[in-house]
Amino acid sequence: MSDREAILFANTAFYAAFSGRDYAAMETLWASEGDVGCVHPGWPPLKGRKAVLASWKNILGNEASPQVSARDAVVLYEGATTIVLCLEIVAEREGAHPQVLSATNVFVKEGSVWKIAHHHAGVANVDVRSLGDEEKPVVN
User: Fold this and answer.
1) Residues 48-70: pLDDT tens digits?
2) Among residues 13, 8, 12, 19, which one has the least CA distance to residue 91?
């Protein structure tokens, strides 16, 4: 598997843990060497593995948290640090339309494994209905 494929696999695993509310999987996906950070929509920035993982434990343990999936991932590859840009689709609740967020996920290589070191998501001015049913291919 190429680095680009491994990075996309790690990004997919991140969203699988998110949508599956799997804290154990989420914990293993985060970098354990160096600093990590996270900015959830509407939250102040979180710094440090302990604070970041505590936020995920809270989010994933909350039954009212929405389901989130990712699409249109693009890898901006540069050495041992990589950025993945994608759209997050936040599932609709109570008849409302799904919301679209723009996300940036930063991955670092620990040994031979890509781990997430930073996640940032914020509201995107995109109508989910304009995206269609299929993931749009991204050329990079």
Assistant:
1) 999 999 999 999 999 888 888 89
2) 19
Distance CA 52, CA 92 (A): 25
**At 56, phi and psi to the nearest 5?**
-65, -35
pLDDT exceeds 60 at position 137 = no
Q: Which domains does the chain have, with CATH numbers?
A: 3-130 (3.10.450.50)
How much is the pTM?
0.88
Cβ(91)–Cβ(67) under 8 Å? yes
DSSP 8-state symbol, 25: H
Handedness of CA 20, 25, 29, 30 (dihedral sign): positive
The pair phi, psi for residue 112, each rounded to 5°, is: -105, 10
